Amino acid sequence: MKKTIVRAVSTAAFLSTVYAGSAYASTHTVEKGDSLWEIAKKYQTTVSELKSLNNLKSDFLQVNQKLKISAAAEAAKTVTTTTTSAATTYVVKSGDYLGKIAKQFNTSVSELKKLNGLKSDMIYVGQTLKVSGKATTAPTPAPAPAPAAPPASSTSLYTVVSGDTLGKIGLQFKMSVADLKKLNGLKSDMIYVGQKLKVNGKAAETAPTPTPAQPVAPAPAPAPAETTQYTVKSGDTLGGISQKFNTTVAKIKELNSLKSDMIYVGQKLKVSGKAAEAVKPPETPAQTGEFATDFVNAAKSVMGVPYVWAGSTINGFDCSGFIYYAANKAGYKIGRLSAAGYYSRTYYVDQPKPGDLVFFENTYKKGISHLGIYLGNNEFIHADEKRGVSIANLSNPYYTAHFDGFKRFY
């Protein structure tokens, strides 16, 4: 009888020996969400091997497509399945980020990225992610802490809403734009709706909420709040008026029976209390009278230059290229941005001066889409599609209908 010699060999060497010469052992049926990378990982093989085995010219897959899997890969999957930790999937929801998901599943961001082949921290709503283990249902209660001093500074999260700018948010939380950018690691003033920003403290609340666990004794009815009448000016928004009077948009709408946020110049609004002193951002070189004068003069010097889409030279301008040219000529070095880009690098002003910017929305596309330079007396200069660089009046029904507000460079 022949003797059988048993040697310790690696799994890979064993599999390559056993299955050498076999074309493929089984197939894999592509499911929704599958990718070549995930399938290769599942069967302990490589994307290039899968593509070669199935004569694929690209990484594109179709649901229910049958893929050949090499015998060695199939066996490797069987051998390693018992040693790998159980993995589940998680569907990304609104407000999720990798750090939040990692904490929920008691893992790390680097492990999540490695498990899902992510090259960055960017994820999207509806995305299916592989996660190890199970989600924690509730945080482990910590032992009762001894009384401690309050933290040096408290931060909270603020969700960006339509019309917000860093200047506006900073005003609301009594922070500077520089502090907001430093706290959130921002490299520019660009923010977007739905973005979560860390802020110091909390915004002023209209009234404290009573603790629901205890019955609240009836309190004497408060005296009716004093109301005054406010006349809407050019550039006003409900958000700006609410900040001025230390109230909320909802209160103003309720007090005036408004069904939407639309208001118009000259409209009389009832507001509670008296206007608070506006906190004005520190003046920058771009806001000085000298810059404003040079800005307007540079704009007027190119009157009549034709409109050219994406143009930013004296051969032709579009609206944002015109601002780029005039600002740089006036000594304010700023990049070539879109109308929306300049919108995010400016803050609202209630009393516009010549040299401020005037913004319009929903012209040829949704959102901020056009801008010009305010000249005073309800006039502004801009790059017009039909007339080129020319002067227009805000009382024109078209501009009145699309008017957003006056803003000033930071």
Description of the molecule:
The strands form six sheets. The protein has a six-stranded antiparallel β-sheet. It has five domains: 11-81, Membrane-bound Lytic Murein Transglycosylase D, Chain A; 87-132, Membrane-bound Lytic Murein Transglycosylase D, Chain A (Roll), CATH 3.10.350; 158-200, Roll (Membrane-bound Lytic Murein Transglycosylase D, Chain A), CATH 3.10.350.10; 227-272, Membrane-bound Lytic Murein Transglycosylase D, Chain A (Roll), CATH 3.10.350.10; 285-409, endopeptidase fold (from Nostoc punctiforme) (Alpha-Beta Complex), CATH 3.90.1720. A hairpin with a 6-residue loop joins β12 and β13 (368-376). The model is unreliable at 1-24, 78-85, 146-152, 204-217 and 278-282 (pLDDT under 50). It is built from 14 helices and 16 strands. The protein is an alpha+beta fold and 410 residues long.
In short:
By secondary structure, this protein is an alpha+beta fold.
